[in-house]
Amino acid sequence: YEEEENTAEKQDKRTAELGVQKGKRLEDKKLQEQELEKKNQESAKEIKKLYLKETGLDINPSETDILKYNLWIEQQRKCLYTGKEIALSEFIGSANVYDIEHTVPRSRGGDDSQMNKTLCDACFNREVKKTKLPSELGCEHKNIMARIDQLGWNDEISKLEFIIRNKRGIIKNITFSSLTLGSIVFIPVFPTRTRA
């Protein structure tokens, strides 16, 4: 009988610990959502100000406009694929010169997080990149990687590609984009994993 009480007590204690952990995760998530909302409100104000200055027109930015703006800022106002400078009026409102594109396409296991999105020249996205990974873009890949390297994103890209492939269980001696530093080339190789 004492063993049953101890077991029940341990289970109750573990259940309480799990409840506290879940509460902490919910609290953390709520704080993240509040921070994101604050950032988005600041972005919306900045979009209104810059758009009025650039075009002479007022705008109420949509959620898509805000996402595009945040990507634009992250990318230092350039298309990572073409290297072109991007004007705010080329992607805000009804302008369709630039798309939000998935670096690792959804059809190839990419997620829908902001980390997997870029603001990309619409023609390049629709006619050249399509469903390819940046590493599959032939001679353009070197130029793209140089622009990404300027932003310090190489490590993040490799991690994202690895996580996505690992989640899908398709890692089989895949090498990721090579990083060139001077005359040294680093090609990260991740462990082989096969489907069960």
CA-based gyration radius: 22 Å
Helix vs. strand class: mainly alpha
Which assembly state applies to the chains in this document?
single chain
Total DSSP helices: 5
Q: SSE order, as H and E?
A: HHEEHHHEE
N→C terminal distance: 43 Å
DSSP, total strands: 4
Mean pLDDT: 80
User: Helicity, in percent?
Assistant: 40-55%
How is the largest sheet built, in terms of strand order?
1-2
Q: Write down the overall geometry.
A: flat
Report the biggest beta sheet as strand number plus sense, adding barrel if it closes. 2 strands, antiparallel
Low-pLDDT stretches: 171-196
Strand fraction equals 5-15%
Which descriptors would you attach to this protein?
196 residues; mainly alpha; two-stranded antiparallel ribbon; 52% helix; flat
